[in-house]
Amino acid sequence: MEFIDVLSVEGEKTGRIETREMIHAKGLWHRTVHIWILSKNNDILLQKRAQEKQTHPGLWDMACAGHISSGETRLGAAMKEIHEELGITLSPDELNFLFTDKSEVFHCHGTYIDREFHDIFLVRKSIPLNAFSLQKNEVAALMYLPFGDFLLKVKQKDPSLVPHFEEYSRITDYITSA
């Protein structure tokens, strides 16, 4: 069972800890990590979410993401998610923390509530697709998408993407300006 720190609407720890299930059932604020992987050619690694996922099954999303468990650091959580979902190990200095996004989304007719602070990381590294070992109940497939094609999908609000369009805009702005 996964336990997660409950946050205030401002993102501060409240001292309460709840199970992941209760966090979403009650719509409590909590923290997650989102990890983006960008190749040296500026291709973005996207994962296709497994069909078994409760939210956004079968849609394309950033390389990997996950909840920050109680007592865990955001960097530790990011490294854990990369290893669990993608089957690779990166060194801490390969993960660059960029920013935090705040998101509130209601799923499953309001019975699954995502009130999250997403801590966003970027990895700039070319990793061949055959180096990944996917966690099948999380990730159905991976693909590298050229940055320009990703920009077009974001601009068109492509329905094959998980609808994190505000985050997509911020990450593409960061990559374009870097």
Q: Explain this structure to me?
A:
It is a single chain. This protein has a single domain (3-177), classed as Nucleoside Triphosphate Pyrophosphohydrolase. Helices cover 24% and strands 38% of the residues. It contains four helices and nine strands; from the N terminus they run ββαββββαβββαα. The strands form three sheets. It has a four-stranded mixed β-sheet. The radius of gyration is 16 Å and the shape is globular. The chain starts with a strand and ends with a helix.
Q: How many helix segments?
A: 4
Q: Order of SSEs, N→C?
A: EEHEEEEHEEEHH
Sheet of most strands:
4 strands, mixed
Tertiary shape: globular
Which descriptors apply to this entry?
4 helices, alpha+beta, 178 residues, Nucleoside Triphosphate Pyrophosphohydrolase, three-stranded antiparallel beta sheet
Précis, in short:
This protein has 178 residues and is α+β, with helices and mostly antiparallel strands. Strand 1 and strand 2 form a beta hairpin.
